[in-house]
Structure to design on (165 residues):
């Protein structure tokens, strides 16, 4: 359950979710790890061109919440006593994308051919994990394939026999 504050509002009431202190993080917890990097004028110009080419008025009626639809469909199927639909297999993504090339292609498609110089960013520094008191469950480690393989090598073989007694 959630702690809520109820307020009268016009002809109804508004419920506001109140947060526990451990759910609230200081903004520094999010932004301290971001390095101060000087962005070149060419990259800023390219980004400005893309934003300018893609901007439009926001019309919320054009967006459809597929998650809500699937959830309502699941609830209706359960109420009708029907079995849940089998999960559809998730297909793999397109793989690694070169963002600079994608940006250049995007600009070329929009008819604005800016030729920014290729500026390579310095290699990213390894970031350490931050420990924030009371947020243990929010900071779960994410391991890659190498870490998982190393962990499997260290793990002793599991026994399938039962203990006597």
């Amino acid at each position: 359950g959630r702690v809520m504050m109820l307020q009268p509002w016009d002809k109804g009431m508004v419920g506001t979710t109140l947060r526990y202190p451990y759910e609230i993080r200081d903004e520094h917890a999010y932004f301290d790890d971001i390095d101060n990097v000087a962005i070149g004028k060419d990259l800023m110009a390219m980004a400005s061109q893309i934003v300018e080419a893609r901007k439009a008025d926001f019309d919320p009626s054009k967006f459809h919440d597929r998650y809500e639809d699937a959830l309502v469909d699941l609830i209706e199927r359960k109420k009708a006593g029907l079995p849940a639909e089998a999960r559809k297999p998730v297909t793999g993504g397109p793989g690694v994308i070169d963002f600079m090339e994608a940006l250049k292609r995007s600009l070329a498609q929009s008819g604005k051919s800016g030729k920014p110089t290729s500026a390579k960013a310095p290699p990213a520094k390894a970031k350490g994990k931050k420990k924030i008191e009371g947020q243990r469950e929010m900071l779960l480690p994410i391991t890659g394939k190498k870490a998982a393989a190393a962990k499997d090598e260290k793990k002793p073989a599991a026994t399938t026999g039962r203990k006597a007694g």
